[in-house]
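name: query_chain
kind: protein
chains: 1
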Amino acid sequence: MSQPWGPTATLDVLRLRARLNALVRGFFAQRDVLEVETPVLSQAGNTEPNIESFTAAFTGHVSAGARTRWLRTSPEYPLKRLLAAGIGDCYELGRVFRNGEAGGRHNPEFTMLEWYRVGWDHVRLAEETVALVQQALALVGRSASVRVLTYRALFQQGLGLDPFTASQAQLQAALGEVQIDADGLGRDDWLDLLVTHHLQPAFADDAITIVHDWPASQAALAQIRQPDPAKAGDPPVAERFELYLGAVELANGYHELRDADEQRTRFSHDNQRRAARGLVQRPHDRHLLDALPLMPHCAGVAVGMDRLLMAMLGTPRIADVLAFDFARA
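structure:
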């Protein structure tokens, strides 16, 4: 048993992490994607109701700006501002922070890889994400098959229902004996619970699963594709994908929204949902909103590096891939 002051990961795992970081940098150097660094502290917070941010108090002169600063939950907003400024393909590998997320699979600070490809859509970016994950698996002598399907097909094949037309009562019934406090849950919450409790756990351990074209109500910062008029009954969908290695969700990617008015509306809707839950509302990132109309057509994706290491090693404990987890930090 390790000493209370000692690392939670073995030294071999820490060496593997270093090799993985070197692989990532080599992967993007070969593709001429620029590594950048962006602020960890921001004047604006993440409005997403299911993500809580840490705050920090600035004690310097008021001329420096807002005293309340938010620790980033991802580098997404400043990276998009760099894209709007013309930097081109870029990525960042660094620490991000989410309050309240501590446990077997979560740590309040963790490592995220996020990158953007100018002129690409989410489908092409998903293929590059698969290539990176396959190279990571090769570090531990593994490979994986690849399965690609739509969100609708995932539900139809796994649960025998259409997620776009099923009633909320049908979604609740499909959850079966899973005990959930239903108070305040909406349709998207029930869909998410079906993914995490029924569909995701059934993914094959030796497979990379790509699920694309999610409900438009779950677009976040993705473009929405309207249905083909010739295909009656097709719903609008969010042009985004999620990538899983086995049952572990590793990546979330978007064909990026560039409409500032639409994004402002989504931020406001998020804050309305936060208010309804009794949560603190977050200031909108006005710099992002000003930059969005200048951002080029692009796609972006974020990969949880700690989760990738967990999936590579087949461990369910995030502490096993961290030098020091939250309890020992």
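note: The mean pLDDT is 93.
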